[in-house]
Amino acid sequence: MSKEKENKQTPKCTVFIKKLGFSGIFRRFIPVWMCLGILLVFSPAIETLVKLKNSTVYALHNFTQLQLKISRPDSGVEVLPSQVQEMLSLLRTHDISKYQLSAQLQQNGRILQRITESAWPIRRESEAVYHLLLICEIEQGNTGIEIDRKKEVALVYHPSL
Amino acid sequence: MFTILLFSIGFFGLGWLVVGPILYGSVVSEKTSIPCLQEIALILVCGMVADYGLVLYLQSLQSSLLIGSSLSIFGLVCYVIRSYRCRNREKYFCSISWKKTVGIVVLCGFYFIPILTEPLSAWDARSIWFFHAKMIYAEGALSHAAGWSHPSVTFSHVDYPKLIPVLAAQATYISGFWNEYLPKVALIFMLVPAILWLFSFARRSFSFVFLLMVFPLSLCEWLWNGYMDGYFALYFSISLLLYGRYMISRRTIDIVSSVCCLLLLLNIKGEGLLAVISVITGFCLIMSIKFVRKQCPPIQLKKLFKLYWRAGFALFIWLSPFMMWNIYKQRWNLSNDLQIGSMQSLARISSRLTDGSWLVIVERSFEELWSALLILGVACVASAIQKKPVVKESLPALVTGGIYFLGITTIYLLTPYDLLWHLKTSIDRTMLVIRGCIFVGSFFILSALEKPQTMTEETPVH
Fold it and tell me: What is the mean pLDDT of residues B73-81?
């Protein structure tokens, strides 16, 4: 009875240490601590925690703005390159269903992929009559009927360009 | 948030129609021998796979959503009846402690924020996974008319599995519009079951802290940027964790969940097939070790065959979406850019083996893996110093990791692209899986070091 009482009064950790002994604790936990240490230093776990924290703080500060963005159609296009944003705006404003890119634009893999996926279901077709060109290409005389232009890109109608 | 809740409930109802018969032989069985947490995770994943199967079978998003929701409502009713009939329902529902619940909610909450508030910007996320989702959404169906053979989308690896694109397309279809935030809800559907499974390993121990630091924290932004590699590595590792636990616990839920996670990989990424082959090969190798076979027959085949119809049903549900997608791929003539198995690929392998390119692959892989190998080394040395026996549950993860590494090395050897470019753009992602395997192996060794008893004898967190 008195032993039970003594056990109840002694803190759990003390009982644990007594049971294992200091050498036992070292043997059992040092490898785990070492591995945790290596993980903390060399893995991106801390970096992830910092990113998660920053993201949470940002979300809390801009809650209403983010909520609006999430619930609005076509939001988030600001992550696209500026030229692609302009092309997208031109295609949508003029209700184009098929387009093709100028040779110069097609050579840029980033632009090519970003406009293809962001404009979908507006399709990039080789026989399309609407062409997206860089402004500098128009200035070089590569013209058709210019429908509209933005800062860097123009939409041109030319059946055989 | 409403979409997430709606889909989660939908997956739960649909999943119960799969899990009920597999685990209990009935959808209204009164038996409950399984921890609630693991059961929920399994139900959610099975629900997602069943939903994906429905979309593949019916093709139209509208019909699949209609039939899926009807089935889901039926499943939910069955689950409610089962819960009502359940003899020890208080014990069953109280098996999730408040500490675990808080942990799950906090971790999920932290990950939900970047998933939902950062627009899709990563290359593969935009060019592959969520572009496919957009194609399905725009067509309203996973059919050939979505444009898979259109010449402008050849860059997009259209032959890749469509589980996440389908989930994203359904979420946006329900909302009625597309933007660069909403489709990422699909990542939340994938994350929640994984976190639930991880917390089924919760114990008052440093090794569990180690596990949480590794999964999901060391997977960094791969879990929210829209790439599938993080989820692929996470589910592969969870499959091996559950299999390792099965080697000690011999509980049906562990092996069922492990196989479910493994087969889920087939629907996440093309490498899923390599993962399954690695696990099967690893399993055969381990079984051939007399010591392991003697001490612990990993799968009770007799028990499995006794319940053959359940195993058959489970395999049908888990494998049919993969099979169906492969049939569509053949029919629509969608081929892989790596030309695996062609004469040219064999020629490339032999030339790269002779010119020393394989050394570059090993070197670059080691740069990604050295910290994980260091941890494994420390754990093994500590285990040897303490004269502990070989931790048998760590073997599947380590052997499978080794075989998977050989598979990935072969893929790099046969790549038709410039090897250095291919390594530069992908090695950090492909090595996540192997790192995961090493970490799982280390976790089991550390667990054994920390506690002399087996895991089932330890006190879980309550």
Answer: 91
B178 touching A (Cβ < 8 Å): yes
Distances (CA, A) of B270 to A32, A95, B285, B404: 35, 37, 24, 13
Give the position of tokens 């694109």.
B165
Residue B25 predicted with pLDDT over 90:
no
Beta strands in B47-163 (DSSP E): none
The sheet with strand A123-124 has its strands ordered as A123-124, A98-101, A130-134, A153-157, A145-149
pLDDT at B314: 78
> What average pLDDT score do residues B263-290 get?
89
* Gap from A157 CA to chain B (nearest CA, Å): 20
Q: Say yes or no for a CB contact (<8 Å) between B210 and A32.
A: yes
Task: Return d(Cα B400, Cα B437) in angstroms, integer.
Answer: 7
B429 touches A at CB < 8 Å: no
A120 and B214 within 8 Å at the Cβ level: the answer is no
Task: Kindly report whether the peptide bond that precedes residue A121 is cis, defined as omega within 30 degrees of 0.
Answer: yes
Closest approach of B452 to chain A, Cα-based (Å): 9
Which residue has better confidence, B387 or B27? B387
Structure token digits, residue B325: 């997608």
pLDDT in tens, B384-419: 888 788 888 899 999 999 999 999 999 999 988 889
In sequence order, what are the residues at sequence separation of 6 or more whose Cβ sits closer than 8 angstroms to the Cβ of residue B199? B37, B100, B103, B104
The ipTM, to two decimals, is: 0.83
Give me the half-sphere count of Cα atoms (radius 13 Å) on the Cβ side of residue B119: 20
User: Is B182 within 8 Å of A70 when comparing Cβ atoms?
Assistant: yes
- For B217, which of A34, A49, A114 is closest by C-beta distance? A49
Residue among B180, B205, B219 with most chain A CBs within 10 A, to mutate: B180
CB contact under 8 A, A32 and B155: no
Q: Across residues A131-141, what is the average pLDDT? A: 83
Mean pLDDT, to the nearest integer, of A73-85? 91
Task: With a cut of 70, say whether residue A79 has pLDDT above it.
Answer: yes
pLDDT at residue A41 above 90? no
Minimal Cβ distance to A116: which of B138, B152, B180: B152
To which H or E segment does residue B94 belong?
A: none
Residue B180 has its nearest CB partner, among A47, A77, A124, at A77
